[in-house]
Amino acid sequence: MVVPTYDEIENLPVMLERLHAAAPQAHVLVVDDGSPDGTGTLAQERADATDWVHVLHRTEKAGLGAAYLAGFAWALARDYDAVMEMDADLSHHPEDVPRLLAALADADVVLGSRWVPGGGVENWPLHRRILSRGGSFVARLALEMPLRDATGGSAPTAATRWSASTCRPSRRRGMYSRSSSPTVRSRPASRWSRCRSRSPSVSTA
């Protein structure tokens, strides 16, 4: 589980506790961009005290996409069975993780969707719903793939389908793109997930 952080000292302990309760078999990699509020120190303390929390310390705030790329590379180098991304601000529900991971038993890619029956968002203004659904619609047409939610996170992927070539930096700082080839050549499976607006701390790694 790759979790980028920047000033998430309030949310991170709660997220780790809920995630471990929901999926005790999962390991978490906290990718911290030098949070001035001490998030990286807190994460390191948890890592020193457990065998399922790990930390990747970065010296500058280089962006969310770069943090995910660093986390994916870290996981691939250690031969994990699957890689999943999750926000630290509790906008994703850790309790949905087991359902998403279980779907990897018969799929190579599992996408958590907010826009299928059972999914949803909490406390989102109308303009944000329109942007999310509109962006997904455009991506679905452009990629010619049946994706209901192309803008959400929480996407566990079988690690055997990933390589350094499937993720590449974007020209825009802090962004990254995932090649469509793993999805095109593999067996995708959508699962519903829920999302809420950000909790007290705001991560903009």
From TrEMBL:
SUPFAM superfamilies: Nucleotide-diphospho-sugar transferases (SSF53448). GO terms for molecular function: dolichyl-phosphate beta-D-mannosyltransferase activity. Keywords: Glycosyltransferase, Transferase. Residues 150-205 are annotated as: Disordered. Pfam families: Glycos_transf_2. GO terms for biological process: glycolipid biosynthetic process. Residues 2-153 form the Glycosyltransferase 2-like domain. One of its GO terms (cellular component) is membrane. Belongs to the glycosyltransferase 2 family. Residues 176-205 have a biased composition (Low complexity). CDD domains: DPM1_like. It comes from Litorihabitans aurantiacus. This is Glycosyltransferase 2-like domain-containing protein. It comes from the Bacteria. PANTHER family: DOLICHOL-PHOSPHATE MANNOSYLTRANSFERASE SUBUNIT 1 (PTHR43398). The keyword Glycosyltransferase applies.
